[in-house]
Specification:
CATH superfamily of one domain: P-loop containing nucleotide triphosphate hydrolases
Radius of gyration: 18 Å
CATH architecture of one domain: 3-Layer(aba) Sandwich
Shape: globular
Distance between the termini: 38 Å
Number of helices: 9
Strand content: 25-35%
Structural class: alpha/beta
CATH class of one domain: Alpha Beta
Bound molecules: adenosine-5'-triphosphate
Oligomer: single chain
Number of strands: 12
CATH topology of one domain: Rossmann fold
Helix content: 25-40%
Largest sheet: 6 strands, mixed
Length: 256
């Protein structure tokens, strides 16, 4: 699904990503964990072809960057970020925003077919936002907006779905509800490969079989989440001693 070989990105004299080797295989879902400025968003921008490596090789969905049509490839990648949340139009209805996902457009300018509307409604139902169909996007809560973005992304049947810090701005209940939804989504047969970026260890759900720990633009460690998210590794990774507790198949940390 994704292959990075010795990928380095340098911009304005700064090494943003350094010698990244990383493979994401089919049927894996990955969490990417790192502190502020560790390079998470830059890594996502490389996957989507918005940031071109200074050296190294990137393949996404079997297509090698430099030899492929990136806008075409992007149609297979759903990308949910706070910047997208801000770009959508407040006065558009939830239904039209979800439908616009089929065309990857901000706003709905294309004619839609009956089957598209049916699919949008099915997705909204799965996400528990069907009652908001006619609501204006701008009046929704952050949690509701996040679900609208996911339904919109799924309308395009992406093969990879990237979630960049999707729990930002959610209260503690909305966050847990959202995470429950992600765990359920991951169990569905149609679920794309998930790449979930976060600062918070406890958001690494059981469905994220693998985790990449990114530190100062470098891969600090990567592998099975259940093997990586241990006291010693996390203490060294964060540069502070942490204690770890397992609850509901998730790892919760406290700084000592
Ligand atoms: N075009 C650029 N020129 C110079 N430095 C850059 C550029 N783009 C990003 N950086 C730097 O690269 C580092 C990594 O940035 P990035 O946004 O990828 O980190 P992040 O892990 O997503 O951070 P956060 O968790 O705070 O969102 C930061 O120090 C940032 O200032």
């Amino acid at each position: 699904m994704i292959r990075f070989e010795n990928v380095t990105v340098i911009r304005n004299g700064k090494t943003i990503l350094k010698e990244i080797d990383w493979n994401v295989n089919k049927n894996e879902h990955w969490a990417i964990l790192g502190l502020n400025g560790s390079g998470k968003t830059s890594l996502l921008n490389v996957i989507c072809g918005y940031l071109y490596p200074t050296s190294g090789k990137v393949q996404v969905l079997g297509q090698e960057f430099g030899k492929t049509n990136i806008p075409e490839l992007r149609k297979d990648i759903g990308f949910i970020s706070s910047s997208l949340k801000g770009q959508l139009k407040n006065f558009d209805t939830v239904l039209s925003i979800v439908l616009s996902g089929k065309f990857a457009s901000i706003g709905l300018y294309e004619a839609v077919e009956k089957k598209d509307v049916q699919e949008a409604r099915r997705l909204m139902e799965q996400l528990g936002i069907e009652h908001l169909e006619d609501s204006a996007y701008g009046v929704l809560s952050e949690g509701e907006k996040q679900r609208v973005l996911i339904a919109r992304a799924l309308m395009a049947h992406p093969k990879i779905l990237i979630l960049d810090e999707p729990c930002n701005g959610l209260d503690v209940i909305a966050r847990e509800e959202f995470l429950e939804f992600i765990e359920k989504l991951a169990q569905q047969e149609f679920c794309p490969t998930l790449i979930y970026v976060t600062h918070h260890v406890e958001e690494v759900l059981p469905c994220f079989s693998h985790t990449l720990l990114l530190k100062d633009g470098e891969v600090y460690a990567q592998g099975f989440s259940r093997e990586l998210l241990k006291e010693n590794t996390l203490s060294e990774f964060f540069g502070r001693e942490v204690t770890v507790q397992e609850q509901q198949n998730r790892t919760w940390i406290a700084i000592k």
